[in-house]
Amino acid sequence: MKTIYLVIPCYNEQEVLPDTVKHLREKMENLMANGTITKESRVVFVDDGSKDNTWAIIERYHTIYPELFDGLKLSRNEGHQNALYAGLMQMRTQCDAIISMDADLQDDINAIDEMIEKFEEGNEIVYGVRSERETDTKFKRGTAHAFYKLMKLMGVELVYDHADFRLMSALALDALSQYYESNRFLRGIVPMIGYKSTKVYYKRGERKAGESKYPLKKMIGFATEGITSLSVKPIRMITALGVILFLVSLLILLYSFIRHVTGHTVDGWTSTVFSIWAIGGLQLLAIGVIGEYIGKIYLETKDRPKYFIEKRLHNDNKNTK
Description:
The protein is of the alpha/beta class. It contains 10 helices and 8 strands. It has helices at 17-33, 54-64, 80-91, 111-120, 138-153, 170-176, 186-193, 216-230, 233-261, 269-302, and strands at 4-10, 42-47, 69-74, 97-100, 125-130, 162-169, 197-202, 309-313.
């Protein structure tokens, strides 16, 4: 038997938490009863600076079930990836493996059984992968597929249709702890660890309450974060684009000269249009992309703390690893 922790980031999840706690309690108790996990296994909710009653609900369930539910409260909202990372790092020495998942339980908790089985077979990382996207709208499905294709094009290694539902062993978590960057994109970092891994396929359900924390605007920002954190390919593409446009500009310059000599153009028109649209557009694009990378460097050089734990709920009478 292995000691397994579930780490669940929460941000304004007061509407879904009671139902989440109910299902997770049943699942954990069943796993303990059939000898799949030890009695020391737990569920850890990480409150990412919620503005509603999320933390109060976590405290209540910790009081009712102190042997099963723990909690971490961050001092402020640090974002989903940092909240998840905080939970992983704070709990990695307490168990044999951690399974991370979202609070809305759209990830199928029944896949946990197979994840643990794959871990017992010697896999250090087990990815939860969606088997289909029938519950998504056409727009959501299209943007999701575009997201993965864009990330692959930009040189970011991702597991297709995998979010943050995964099992990581203590060994894999120790390796993850050695990635010190401030701009943390776990979906791209975890595959870089390189330990033996496998996939478990599951059917993702619909969100039962509350609102999605990843609307289109946030997904675009998420993609930008991932690309600029893990790949320099955009800068190389700009370099290639600059070379191509330079060669094209020579052809346009030759064409403009011929048109000028033959008297088929207005003086100054071609050079003005060319300089404004071609060179100006390229410069703005290049400055924007390079500025994004400079911003990342700026944040990394500060080496600020990634998070602060304001409160911790833990059963002191529990024996930990």
